[in-house]
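Pasting as-is:
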Amino acid sequence: MIHMGKLALLHGFRVLHISHELSAEETEQRYDRAIGCLSKEQEPTPIVFPKVDEEGHPRPPETRVLPSVYDIKEVQKVRNVIRRLGGELIIKKYSLLTCTMDEIERYLNYLETYKNFTPDVVINDYPEKMKLPFGDYRRDGIHEIYMNMKRIAEERKQLWFTVSQVKRDALEKKVLSKGDFAEDIRKLEDVDLALAISHNKFQAANQRMQAFVLAARQETDSFGCCFDLQLDAGQFLINCWPIKMKSDEKDNEGENAGV
């Protein structure tokens, strides 16, 4: 979600990031690190970045000494870049199990009326941490939240991002399926695009993941890409190359797993 917000800001959009779990301060720091490629350590730190060719074959890695996110001057540089590009970010933190969709609509109205801020992109991280509308009927409550997110996005002409967990038995799967969605599979009916992000043990050890289109309302699905990441530098995506996914593909612990 931070990566999606980062891309929106770098394209000059207004972003509202709603967090039900991370603190506002930690979320803000993650944005600084993602945009500025800053280390999470107190001092400048050497970080190793993986390198690949166009087909995803590994190449000698690159080591860079990155400034710290606690360096105020470096953080100011990050903020200045976003200002020049026109991007604006507001982070709103709610305590667990307190926020409702009515509250989010109220806050959107407040921002528009009193702060002259109408977001282009809304990130809701994430619905399962919100106060559900149906009490014990958890799945129906989650389904209603998803439908309301889509309704608000359409009415206000906004792009909304959210995330969903998978079932426990899908945690080690290399290729996720529609049936791996946790809580309520009806989520797939409510979204316009669902991206599945996964990795197996070999990929995790090599800082590699894959993302592919699990469902799309108006586009083709079942295609995607592999990518490298370096979270020590706040970078969710570094190198990227296309892959072809098959639903019956088996996990591979070998050298080319994920390609």
